[in-house]
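A common beginner's mistake is to predict each chain separately and then try to dock the pieces by hand. The better habit, illustrated here, is to supply every component at once so that their relative placement is modeled jointly.
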Amino acid sequence: MPDDILSIKGINDGLLISLSATEKWELITKELAARLDEKAAFFAGAKVTVNVGERPVPKYELSSLKALLERRSLSLAVVMSDSTTTLASATALDVRTRTTSKAAADIDDDTMAIDPEEAGTSGVMIRRTLRSGRIVHSRGHVVVYGDVNPGAQIIAAGDIIVWGKLRGTVHAGAEGDTSAVVCALDMSPNQLRIAGHITTSPSDKRRAVKPEVACVRDNQIVVEAWG
Amino acid sequence: MVARVITITSGKGGVGKSTTTANLGVALARLDKKVVLIDADIGLRNLDVIMGLENRIVYDIVDIVEGRSKLRQAMIKHKQFPDLYLIPAAQTKDKTAVSPEDMIQICNKLREEFDYILVDSPAGIERGFRNAVAPADDVLIVTNPEVSAVRDADRIIGLLEAVNKGPGRLILNRLKIEMVKRGEMLSADDVTDILAIPILGIVPEDELVVPASNNGIPVTLNENSKAGVAFTNIARRITGEKVPLMNLEENKSFFQRIARLFGQRN
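With all components supplied together, the output reads:
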């Protein structure tokens, strides 16, 4: 009875995965992987809250669970548990925690204690100009402190921020995230892609140089002044 | 005497690497420097033609590497300048006949006797380019004011930075000031805006260059050639002299200059 072992539910800002507190851990993770793989494309990109109930989960088990999720493009955002062992493991892995005494349904309740710590998301920082022929790949965001010259390429699952002239090719949200954005101080990319959308810069040479942001709206890429 | 090894490269073909190498060689020799030019474009040699030394070739760089000739035997002395030599490329082999280590060794043997060793790189970013760059103390990147040449130069600068030889200095070759004014050609500012490296010199387009190269008399020997003067200026800058960039605007009337002083556009 798989539902006794685990359940996957959609919640406001992602997925809530509840795991049996008593079943064997190996069995649970195996079943979880199988269930996620069934609908891999549907789940991809989601933020996951994992509820393990009273089970004490050591750090290495939680870390392998986190990796299991990340391999499927899911990020482990919150761990819910009543076990201090589990909570300590999550803290050690830099994952936010909640106790289960607040039921899953209460997750977005205003009465919940507000954690002042911003979790943020990870990425890479490139502190130089990317010249023609250079490529940057990242499962997170990419920040370039320098220019991105024509012939250079950036592919990121998250956002792309260029503190300089963007003239190369960039692909934000490369794993399908249409909420990804591209920002640059001088936005004239050779080609700009966000998730499955694609556009080129207008060939107007007399444009004003100003910081701009590109994002997807109504199924097309729009570029507007930043700020 | 410890020579500086200067490699002249570009990425794109046909932008004037060999012409630049030959002219800088001659110009440095005229400044009483001891200079040896090495043609690293094995299989497509032509520096010897531009230098007017084609008919004197007996041994080439591959003969040196493979032990058929001593270094000295392959060095061809220039007709006019006794302190200017050329080591020609082989025409029959390909780039793999020489390794980057071979180039470093050859240059190290020459360093004691010369002021400057100029290495003429082949086009491209493969073995031939790596051979040419391996011994370099300085790299000069030749480009033309057109988008494709600048793109390749940018790639080359990136590769040079990756092997700690970068970023190099730029020679902007074949600039036509009239076309720049009409907005039909990239200006020096457009080029440096993208490449962001120092400009060592700007060489104007000059019809005297092609016949000079065909005749084996580098154009810098022609005092009437603007390109020739530009190459001489670059050679002087290489020796450390401060020479301002040439004023490429020609035939400006006195009144136009006055008008400019007052900030009017003309």
